Amino acid sequence: MKANILNSEILPENITLKQTATTLLLPVLKIMKSRKLQVTIGLMLVLISIPFFSAAEGTRQLEPYNPTTNPTEVTKLHLTTGVNRVPFAQIGCAAQYRLNIHISDPSSEKIYFGLNDGAANLYYRLRSPSGGTPIALTAFPTSGTGFISTWNQAYNGPNIGGSNPSGYTPMVVTPTETGDYYIEFASSASGGVVSNTEIEYIDVTVATGTTPINGRLWSQGWQIYSGAIITSLRQQPSLFQCFLFTQMMGLLPKLT
After folding, report:
1. Sign, CA torsion 209/214/219/224
2. Which of 141, 120, 126, 113 is nearest to 202 (CA)?
3. Distances in Å between the alpha carbon of 28 and those of 64, 77, 190, 194?
4. Which helix (H) or strand (E) holds 91?
């Protein structure tokens, strides 16, 4: 299959990819807000942050500007299936659609994360590299631990041990395995596909002590929503930072 963004084919077919934890700084990706965006099988897209923006991975990269003051710059993870869509991060999805969290050293690294589904009543679960379930299907938090109430909290990332008071209070997972954990989303406590829903805020941060490690959140099948179709594309861009890597073509420095 080919990967496409705004109908622009950028990769050859049948590329086999391997995850990398490398974090690089590339030009800001500018995508016009004309339709729901998806990155399908055949590529790996890793959310990154500028080196001094090292506190969070998720909303911080998707929405680097506060949508309250920049309402035209909205970019969220999109959960749905159907024509021209992939089952990104859906419960039970194939490996190429998973939302992965890479752990290199379970003896020192922990996973800190927070969510906000915008009152969509979603559920999530966390799976381990060996297929275990450290967190069974659980309703998205609506307050307290694990709940990201504002863009500012999502942007600032987890408040680990009081080191980041502007951030949110995270849920914490202590890994026991090296490899890729992954988070899945469902429409109910018994499972079920999520349809046409965006995650309002999300942050997944791997850290050693209070020091976050960049480049650990990754997927081969990102599915991203940049708002409704509008008349004037040039006036309402969505901006986020990312890089794309393939085994065949190496690093692609810019997506347009």
Report:
1. positive
2. 113
3. 10, 18, 40, 30
4. none
Give the N- to C-terminal CA distance of the chain in Å, as an integer. Answer: 20
CB 42 within 8 A of CB 162: no
**Closest residue by Cα to residue 184 from 62, 113, 92, 48:** 92
The predicted-structure confidence for 47-81, as pLDDT tens digits, reads as follows 433 333 346 899 998 888 888 887 766 789 999 99
pLDDT tens across 212-247, in order?
998 899 998 999 887 765 555 445 556 665 666 666
Q: What is the 3-state secondary structure of 106-142?
A: CCCEEEEEEEECCCCCCEEEEECCCCCCCEEEEECCC
**229 Cα distance to chain centroid:** 22
Other CB atoms closer than 10 Å to residue 172's CB: what's the count?
A: 14
Tell me which residue has tokens 């959960």.
Answer: 79
* Residue 133 vs residues 68, 90, 136, 202: alpha-carbon distances, Å: 36, 15, 6, 20
- The structural domains of the chain, with segments of one domain joined by +, span 35-227
Give the residue from 148, 154, 141 showing the smallest Cα distance to 53. 154
Alpha-carbon distance of 193 to 202, in angstroms, equals: 19
Secondary structure element (H or E) that encloses residue 87, with its range: none
* E runs forming strands in 128-200: 135-139, 171-173, 179-186, 197-198
Spatial separation of the C-alpha atoms in residues 194 and 117, rounded to whole Å: 12
